Amino acid sequence: MKRLFVVSCAVMMMLFMVTASGYSQDQDQSVMPRSGQDACKTDIKEFCKGIKRGGGRIWTCLKSNEDRLSQGCKDHIAQVREKRKEFHNACNDDVNKFCKGIVPGKGRIAACLKSHERELSETCRGIFQK
């Protein structure tokens, strides 16, 4: 169960690396693309002040304050969750097939899937093409 959660988080990060533009090297941006940071900018300043960026800490902060977030930020988080679910449904079998021994984190699952792009199922490959 823990591995499934970790893989889901890695998949979510990969999804945004593939589908969103405007990334920097900051790890929180690999979880939340710039468009999401714009939607949640005020919330980040209010609820996550003093939290060091990177390692998904901003994302965790937002989730822990979700009931107090602005509607725009809540909507963005809902979109992230939906895309993560979509990616998980499309690519879970491919992750298990091609990336079973890969330790999740820092984009390793995404890199693994990308290195097997020609071998991926049609549904998973479709996610990379969105």
String of helices and strands: HHHHHHH
| DSSP summary: helix tally | 7
- What structural class results from the helix and strand content? mainly alpha
- Major sheet summary line: none
Please characterize this protein's 3D structure.
With 130 residues, the chain is mainly α. The chain has one domain (2-129). Helices cover 68% and strands 0% of the residues. It has 7 helices and no strands. The protein has helices spanning 2-19, 27-31, 34-47, 57-64, 71-98, 108-115, 122-129. Helix 3 packs across helix 5. It is elongated, with a radius of gyration of 15 Å. The two termini are 28 Å apart. Residues 1-31 have low confidence and may be disordered.
List keywords for this structure.
single chain, 130 residues, mainly alpha, 68% helix, 0% strand, elongated, disordered N terminus
Q: What's the arrangement of secondary structure elements?
A:
Blueprint: H1 2-19, H2 27-31, H3 34-47, H4 57-64, H5 71-98, H6 108-115, H7 122-129
Q: How would you sum up this structure in a few lines?
A:
The chain has 130 residues and is mainly α. Helices cover 68% and strands 0% of the residues.
